[in-house]
C-alpha cells in the first residue's frame, strides 16, 4: 500500500458553494483514511498550479465542476476521463468488440452474472468498459494509491447512472492482499501491467506509473477462477503468472489467459 504524507485540497480559481462543499466532504473522507497522514484545505485565491507548488511540494487535489484533478507535480494532472473508451464503445455499436470484452465473451455468456476484479484500476477505463458491456457483472475496482483511488472513483461516479453504480465497488488496497482475503468473490481477475513499460514519462500514463507500486510476487494461483493479464509482449509476467500468452504480431500489448478449477465455481 502507498502511504501519503500530506495532501492539499482546493477549488478552481472560479469557485462556488458546490465546490466548497465537495472540498469539505473530501476532507472528511480522506482524513479517515489511515494511509494519509495529513489532509489540509488551502484557499485557492488566484494562484496557478505552479504557484501552489512553489510554496509546498505535497500533492494537490483541485475540485472542478467536471470532477477532481490530482496533481503530484504542476505539469500533468491525473483524473477520470473516458478517452479511448469512447472509441471502444463506438466500436461495439458496429459489433467490433475490444479485445478484453471479446475474451470475456468467450469465458462466459454475456447475460450471465459474474464478478470481475480489476486489480489495477489506474484510470478506471477498463472497469467502466466492462460495466458498460455486461448488464449483470459486479466489478471490484482496486487501486492501492489512496489519492489516485479517490480522484478516479469520484470522477467515475459522475459518469455512471445510479443503477450502474450499484454494480461497482471502489477499493483502496493492494490487489494481492485484497484477493487473498476475498477469494470467494473473484470469478475473473484482470491485471493491466502495461504501465510498467511507460511510453512517455511526461504524459498522464507516465505520471500515473510513477505513483503505483505493484507487488507481483505473491502466489495468487488458487485465488481466482480466471486470470486475464495485459502486459508488454516482452514482460516476464506471462511466465511468472503461468498464463497462456495470446500473441498479437502487430502490437506491443499482449494478453494472457489462465483458468483454474475451483470448487463451487460460478463460471462454466
TrEMBL record:
Q: Which organism is it from?
A: Mammaliicoccus stepanovicii
Which segments of the protein form a coiled coil according to its record?
A: none
Q: From the UniProt record, which GO molecular function terms apply?
A: rRNA (guanine-N2-)-methyltransferase activity
InterPro entries per record: 16SrRNA_methylTrfase_J (IPR007536), SAM-dependent_MTases_sf (IPR029063)
Query: What top-level branch of life does the organism fall under?
Result: Bacteria
- State the protein's name: Protein of uncharacterized function (DUF548)
Amino acid at each position: 500500500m502507498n502511504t501519503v504524507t500530506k495532501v492539499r485540497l482546493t477549488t478552481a480559481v472560479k469557485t462556488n458553494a458546490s465546490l466548497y462543499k465537495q472540498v469539505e466532504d473530501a476532507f472528511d473522507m480522506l482524513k479517515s483514511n489511515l494511509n494519509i497522514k495529513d489532509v489540509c484545505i488551502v484557499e485557492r485565491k488566484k494562484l496557478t498550479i505552479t504557484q501552489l507548488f512553489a510554496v509546498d511540494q505535497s500533492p494537490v487535489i483541485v475540485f472542478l465542476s467536471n470532477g477532481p484533478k490530482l496533481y503530484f507535480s504542476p505539469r500533468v494532472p491525473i483524473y477520470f476521463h473516458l478517452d479511448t473508451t469512447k472509441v471502444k464503445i463506438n466500436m461495439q455499436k458496429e459489433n467490433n468488440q475490444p479485445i478484453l470484452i471479446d475474451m470475456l465473451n468467450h469465458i462466459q455468456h454475456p447475460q450471465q452474472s459474474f464478478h470481475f476484479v480489476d486489480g489495477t484500476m489506474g484510470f478506471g477505463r477498463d472497469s467502466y468498459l466492462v460495466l458498460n458491456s455486461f448488464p449483470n457483472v459486479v466489478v471490484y475496482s482496486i487501486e492501492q494509491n489512496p489519492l489516485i483511488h479517490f480522484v478516479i472513483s469520484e470522477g467515475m461516479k459522475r459518469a455512471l447512472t445510479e443503477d450502474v453504480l450499484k454494480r461497482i465497488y471502489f477499493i483502496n488496497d493492494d490487489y494481492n492482499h485484497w484477493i487473498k482475503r476475498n477469494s470467494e468473490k473473484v470469478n475473473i481477475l484482470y491485471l493491466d501491467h502495461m504501465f510498467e513499460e511507460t511510453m512517455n514519462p511526461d504524459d498522464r500514463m507516465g505520471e500515473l506509473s510513477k505513483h503505483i507500486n505493484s507487488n507481483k510476487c505473491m502466489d495468487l494461483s488458487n485465488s481466482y477462477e480466471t486470470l486475464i493479464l495485459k502486459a508488454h509482449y516482452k514482460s516476464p509476467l506471462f511466465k511468472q503468472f503461468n498464463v497462456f500468452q495470446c500473441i498479437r504480431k502487430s502490437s506491443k500489448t499482449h494478453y494472457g489467459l489462465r483458468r483454474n478449477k475451483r470448487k463451487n465455481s460460478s463460471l462454466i
